[in-house]
Design goal:
Number of strands: 11
Oligomer: single chain
Structural class: mainly beta
Shape: globular
């Protein structure tokens, strides 16, 4: 059974940076698509960035392009989301998710069922 554990959230001022980590256990991620999705207060959950673990192809929503970078460490079975130039509108609970049937597009566009979820980590951008 695949388990995902997020870490790295917190409170940061606008313009600051955070790095989120998603550590996987139970199964290696070789054939999975991994994504970071978020739910802001009063809003629907949305995909932020997704990565194909096998070849590192990635996808970003327009609002985070140029600011966020998704990456993976194969040896550590971990996916990261480096978030720079954070804005108040980035405030949300960020979830790590994994699926063997989703593509990076379908996962980040919430177009396919996602089987595995982490517990979420809060990111608050405020002065």
């Amino acid at each position: 059974q695949l388990q995902l554990v997020e870490s790295g959230g917190g409170l940061v001022q606008p313009g600051g940076s955070l790095r989120l980590s998603c550590a996987a256990s139970g199964i290696t991620l070789d054939y999975y698509t991994i994504g970071w999705l978020r739910r802001a207060p009063g809003k629907e959950r949305e995909g932020v960035s997704c990565i194909s673990y096998s070849d590192a192809r990635s996808y970003y929503i327009d609002s985070v392009k140029g600011r966020f970078t998704i990456s993976r460490d194969i040896a550590k079975n971990t996916v990261y989301l480096q978030m720079n130039s954070l804005k108040p509108e980035d405030t949300a609970v960020y979830y790590c998710a994994a699926s063997r049937i989703s593509t990076i597009d379908s996962m980040c566009n919430m177009a396919a069922p996602i089987r595995y979820w982490g517990q979420g980590t809060q990111v608050t951008v405020s002065s």
